[in-house]
Amino acid sequence: MSSQKATWFSRHKTLLDDILIISIMAVLAGCGLIYEYLLSHYAARVLGTVEHTIFAMIGLMIVAMGLGSFAAKKIKDPFSSFAWLELAIALVGLTAVFVIALIFSLSNTLPQIIAETYGLPPDLQPEGGFLRSFHSFAALSPYFIGFLLGFLIGIEIPLIARIREEIYKKHISNNAGTVYGADYIGAGIGAAIWIVFMLSMEISTAAAATASANLVAGLIFYFRYRRKIRMSPLFLLCHLMLIAAALVIFKHGQTWELSLESTLYKDKVIYSAHTPYQHITITERIMNPEEPVVYTFYINGRTQFSSIDEAIYHEMLVHPAMLASARQKKILIIGGGDGLAAREVLKWNPASVTLLDLDLAIIQFFRDEKFDENLGRIVNAPLLKLNQNALSDKRLNIMIGDAFNQIDDLLNQQQLYDSIIVDLPDPSHPDLNKLYTDRFYQKLSLLLAGDGALAIQSTSPYHAKDAFLSIGKTVKAAGLLHVEQYHANVPSFGEWGWTIATKNGISPLARIKEAKELPIKTHWLTLDIVKTAFHFPNNYFNRIPGVEINRLGSHTLYNYHQQAWQQAQGLYDPHAGQQN
Q1: Per-residue CA distances from 77 to 81, 321, 456, 557 (Å)
Q2: Residue 304: inside a domain
Q3: Residue 579 belongs to a domain
Q4: Residue 128: CB partners within 8 Å, gap ≥ 6?
Q5: Which residues are catalytic?
Q6: Domain containing residue 419: CATH number
Q7: Whether 224 contacts 41, CB under 8 Å
Q8: Residue 10 Cα to chain centre, angstroms
Q9: Which of the listed residues 238, 262, 286 is the one where a domain comes to its end?
Q10: Comparing C-alpha atoms, which of 335, 477, 500 is closest to residue 404?
Q11: Residues 274 and 254 both lie in one domain
Q12: Which of 37, 45, 137, 565 gives 20 to 30 Å between its CA and that of 78?
């Protein structure tokens, strides 16, 4: 009987050990996937090329995990190695963001330090030689760290499989299936946690939370198998020190991150936050104590507007379409969550304005006062003043959702608008590309009154010429009768362009030329500026026959835009024979 009890206890002890190991594996798999997401997310923020960076980082980490799995066969002591491995993964995962930020900070400030040391003028900062190499290294540093983290994560599964066999003291059938099952389920739970909770967290807070879960799992493993772990006291000390570091980062990480992020921009970062869809940053520049402070708004590291010249962009976007429309009573704005396009539309005293935007958090930031405890003031007060509280206007109806699908609701309601203003970000992501397709413009055409006008933000006609021309050609392919394009210089962006279209009658420019004056007060725009904005250099439109229409699913415009951006950064060599 005692022998049977011993066998029973041994079996159940082994089963409990196995459940513990599988549970630890699931937790670590979730942590690994979150590390992968947060590192990709942060790398995209600092590098600016969101989609390419995220896809490249995830692919690179998967390859590194495979190499880590191969390397695991060289490890002889699975228990000690696994314990120290989890400590290493937690350390890299916890500090990766700050290491990348420090490298970028040094890369951005070193030229200025050298210039100040040698008394060089502000417009003659050193850029070549070692500094260029170091800047290239900084751009690759997220990938180096991602590879290291992926390599370490890849070692986990083979070690867990070996630990299970040592617990059972025999070869286990379907061992790999059980371990991989726990890994996949844990990764799925990790993905859900990232989407529901962590996507809107500060990146340092998310890293600290993930590392904490990693460390707790490591401690549980340690206390259960501490007799099998070499250098056990040192391991425990290191673990406790890393837990303390995670707690410090929980408390101060956001402040540190903000300070380091300031070095990524020309101006001081005063606010930084995540929304479920993007990362937003606000900077301020005090050019002269007697002049207004300049505020710049960034999404995922890309400039959206600067308070010093946003009026140029938004007046050029809105007022030509309003001038070309027979009436200005019922207006639709797509995008424009900052309320600046709405501010310009409301100058025409419309009866109603519908604003359709994807990100509720952006709407709330530009509509509701947001008190920041760290700064001790309402951080968005100057932005509410800038948009003149347009998003709180009673005539404004705000719709939240993906414009491509939400437009169908407006069509089902048989809505019709006198003017439609499309103020979307550049097509720098495949999801944005669909909002620049012939199918989307066909939907907008159905919503546009017969004597109304449609205006579309159309990227730079100078830096992204093919993308600019493709937008105009795509609008024409959607069935609108008259399609014209115009441009102006916005200092924060450079040369910028817009597309305007009408369904019937005379062209938009012909309608604008009938006006005797602008019927509303503007900051920068005049009627003559509007008229001359339609003029382009000789032969500018000669390339239209070779530019493709952006059809749904083609990603034509997205590719044009990416190539233009890469060419501007010296990363893309266009085919010989292409002419500007």
Answers
A1: 6, 71, 63, 54
A2: no
A3: no
A4: none
A5: 423
A6: 3.40.50.150
A7: no
A8: 52
A9: 262
A10: 335
A11: no
A12: 37
pLDDT > 90 in the chain, percent: 64
pTM of the model: 0.79
Rounded Cα distance, 410 and 475, in Å: 20
**pLDDT tens profile 108-135:** 788 877 877 777 776 666 777 777 888 8
Amino acid, single-letter form, for residue 332: L
Instruction: Let me know: does 459 contact 471? Beta carbons within 8 Å.
Output: yes
Residue 7 domain flag: no
∠ CA(276), CA(278), CA(281), 5° rounding? 125
Residue 64 · residue 154 · CB < 8 Å: yes
Do 31 and 96 lie in one domain? The reply is yes
HEC sequence for 13-25:
HHHHHHHHHHHHH
Helix or strand holding residue 221 (H, E):
helix 203-225
pLDDT in tens, 338-355: 999 999 999 999 999 999
Residues 147/64, Cβ–Cβ less than 8 Å: yes
Task: Examine the domain organization and report whether 292 and 215 are in the same domain.
Answer: no
Closest CA to 338 of 302, 314, 373, 315: 314
Statement to judge: residues 102 and 198 lie in one domain: yes
Q: Average pLDDT in the 258-277 region?
A: 79
- Give me the domain span that covers residue 475: 311-568
Backbone angles phi, psi at 46, to 5 degrees: -80, -25
Cα–Cα separations (whole angstroms), residue 475 to 155, 248, 505, 555: 52, 53, 17, 15
Q: Are residues 520 and 559 in the same domain?
A: yes
Is 176 inside a domain boundary? yes
The domain total for the chain is: 3
Contact between 354 and 332 under an 8 Å Cβ cutoff? The reply is yes
**Token representation of residue 110:** 């070193």
First to last CA, the chain: 91
Convert the pLDDT of each residue in 454-474 to its tens digit.
Answer: 999 999 999 999 999 999 999
**Which amino acid type is present at position 470?**
S
3-state DSSP assignment of residue 352: strand
Are 257 and 272 contained in the same domain? no
Please give the Cα distance from 552 to 466 (Å, whole number).
17
Residues 41 and 78 in one domain: yes
Q: Are residues 363 and 410 in the same domain?
A: yes
